[in-house]
C-alpha cells in the first residue's frame, strides 16, 4: 500500500500547492506558487508559505546557464543545502502548529516538508517518515482517523523495511500510533504503543530527556481518561520534573554572572564548560502546551501536593523567562512562592526565591 499526496502530480507549475488540482491563482510575492482557490492560498500562507515564500524563488526558477561543470556542481550543492534547510524549517513549523492545537494549519507545513524530503531523498526513504507522522497527527487532531491510519501505515511500513531506522523515528511513530488508539478509545493498545515510544526514546535520548517526556505525558493522559489518577499523577510529576530540570539548566547559564578577571597582565577569556541547551520553536510550543496542561490539572485538584504545584509553577516561570515574557514569568514565580510555603522542605522555597531575585536583576539590567 502506498499513500503519498505528492507522488503523482498532474503538472509542474500550474497545480495547486495544497491539493495538486489545476491552479488559477498565483502568489504575487514569489510568483512561483499557484492555488486552485483563495481558500487554499490563505490556508497555505498561514500554515507555512509566509515563512518560505521568498526562499521558494531560487528553488523553483529555472537554472541559469553555467559554462563549467564546477559551477554547475557548486549550484547543485547549494540547492541541495537549501532544500535540506527547508525540510527542517517546515517540519519544525508543522510540529509547533500541532503543539498549539492548530491542526488544519499544520497540514501545509507537513506537505511542504514531504515535498522537499522526496526531492532530496526519494520516494522510499526513511527520511519521509517524520512528514507522514505530522500529517497523521494533524489528521488525528481533525478527527479524520481513517486518513490518519493511512499516513501512519505508510510510515510504519517504511520503518519496518528500513533495518537502520533510528530509535528517534521509531519513538515518534509509536507515539503517533498511541495517539491514534487513544482517539479511538482503545486505551490498552494506546498504552502499549506509548510504552514502545518511551522505550525507543529512552534508548536514544535517555529516560530523563524532554524528548522522552512526551511519551510519559500522553500515557498519563490515557490513565487520566481511565480514571486511574494515582498512576496519571505520578507520570505528570515525572514530566514536570524533566522539564523543570531542563529549564533550570538554561536559566542557570543565562543568569550566571561572568567571572571577574584578577591579577595583572593580558585578559584571557576562557570558554565556559557549560553549554546552554536551547529550545527550538516546536519545543517551545510543546513546553507551553504540556506544562500549562499539567498546571491546570494541579490547580483544580483538591488532593494535590504543594510541592507538585510549586514545581510546575516554577517550571512555567522559568519557561516564560526564557521566552522573554517577563509578566508571565513573574506571575508564575509568585504562584510558585505561595505554593512552596505549604511544603516542609525549605530548599524548594529557597530555589524559587533565588530565581525571583535573578528575575528582578535581569529586569533591572534591561531597564
Distinctive features:
zinc-finger, 14 helices, 367 residues, zinc, zinc ion binding, metal-binding, mainly alpha, Serine Threonine Protein Phosphatase 5, Tetratricopeptide repeat
Concise overview:
InterPro entries: TPR-like_helical_dom_sf, TPR_rpt, Zinc_finger_MYND_domain, Znf_MYND. Keywords: Metal-binding, Zinc, Zinc-finger. About 70% of the residues lie in helices and about 0% in strands.
Describe the protein in words.
The termini are far apart. The protein is globular. It contains 14 helices and 2 strands, in the order E-E-H-H-H-H-H-H-H-H-H-H-H-H-H-H. It is mainly α. Among the domains are: 1-61 and 77-162, Serine Threonine Protein Phosphatase 5, Tetratricopeptide repeat; 280-367, no CATH class. Strands 1-2 form a two-stranded antiparallel ribbon. The longest helix is centred in the N-terminal third of the chain and has 31 residues, at 69-99.
Helical amount among residues, as a percent range? 55-70%
Alpha-carbon distance between the two ends: 61 Å
Largest sheet: 2 strands, antiparallel
Strand content: under 5%
Low-pLDDT stretches: 1-12, 267-272
Q: What is the fold named in CATH at topology level of the domain at 1-61 and 77-162? A: Serine Threonine Protein Phosphatase 5, Tetratricopeptide repeat
Briefly note the structural class of the backbone.
mainly alpha
Strand order in space, largest sheet: 1-2
Number of strand segments: 2
| CATH classification class of the domain at 1-61 and 77-162 | Mainly Alpha
CATH architectural group of the domain at 1-61 and 77-162:
Alpha Horseshoe
Rg measurement, Å: 24 Å
Pattern of helices and strands = EEHHHHHHHHHHHHHH
Number of helices, where a helix is a run of at least 4 consecutive DSSP H or I residues: 14
Overall pLDDT confidence: 88
The general outline is globular
Amino acid at each position: 500500500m502506498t499513500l503519498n499526496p505528492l507522488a503523482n502530480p498532474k503538472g509542474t507549475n500550474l497545480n495547486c500547492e495544497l491539493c495538486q488540482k489545476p491552479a488559477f491563482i498565483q502568489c504575487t510575492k514569489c510568483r512561483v506558487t499557484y492555488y486552485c482557490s483563495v481558500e487554499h492560498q490563505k490556508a497555505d500562507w498561514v500554515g507555512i508559505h509566509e515563512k518560505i515564500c521568498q526562499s521558494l524563488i531560487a528553488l523553483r526558477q529555472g537554472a541559469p546557464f553555467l559554462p563549467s561543470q564546477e559551477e554547475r556542481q557548486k549550484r547543485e550543492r547549494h540547492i541541495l543545502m537549501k532544500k535540506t534547510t527547508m525540510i527542517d524549517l517546515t517540519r519544525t513549523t508543522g510540529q509547533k502548529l500541532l503543539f498549539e492545537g492548530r491542526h488544519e494549519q499544520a497540514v501545509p507545513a507537513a506537505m511542504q516538508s514531504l515535498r522537499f524530503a522526496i526531492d532530496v531523498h526519494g520516494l522510499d526513504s526513511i527520511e519521509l517518515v517524520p512528514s507522514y507522522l505530522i500529517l497523521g497527527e494533524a489528521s488525528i487532531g481533525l478527527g479524520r482517523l481513517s486518513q490518519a491510519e493511512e499516513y501512519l501505515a505508510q510510515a510504519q511500513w517504511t520503518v519496518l523495511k528500513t533495518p537502520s531506522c533510528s530509535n528517534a523515528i521509531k519513538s515518534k511513530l509509536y507515539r503517533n500510533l498511541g495517539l491514534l488508539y487513544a482517539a479511538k478509545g482503545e486505551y490498552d493498545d494506546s498504552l502499549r504503543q506509548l510504552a514502545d515510544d518511551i522505550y525507543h526514546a529512552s534508548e536514544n535520548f535517555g529516560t530523563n530527556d524532554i524528548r522522552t517526556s512526551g511519551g510519559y505525558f500522553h500515557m498519563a493522559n490515557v490513565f487520566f481518561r481511565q480514571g486511574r489518577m494515582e498512576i496519571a499523577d505520578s507520570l505528570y510529576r515525572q514530566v514536570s520534573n524533566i522539564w523543570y530540570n531542563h529549564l533550570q539548566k538554561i536559566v542557570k547559564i543565562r543568569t550566571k554572572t561572568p567571572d571577574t578577571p584578577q591579577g595583572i597582565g593580558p585578559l584571557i577569556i576562557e570558554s565556559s564548560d557549560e553549554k546552554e541547551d536551547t529550545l527550538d520553536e516546536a519545543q517551545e510550543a510543546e513546553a507551553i502546551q504540556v506544562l500549562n496542561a499539567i498546571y491546570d490539572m494541579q490547580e483544580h485538584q483538591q488532593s494535590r501536593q504543594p510541592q507538585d504545584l510549586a514545581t510546575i509553577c516554577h517550571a512555567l516561570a522559568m519557561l516564560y523567562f526564557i521566552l522573554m515574557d517577563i509578566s508571565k514569568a513573574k506571575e508564575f514565580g509568585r504562584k510558585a512562592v505561595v505554593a512552596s510555603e505549604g511544603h516542609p522542605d525549605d530548599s524548594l522555597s529557597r530555589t524559587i526565591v533565588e530565581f525571583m531575585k535573578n528575575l528582578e536583576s535581569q529586569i533591572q539590567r534591561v531597564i
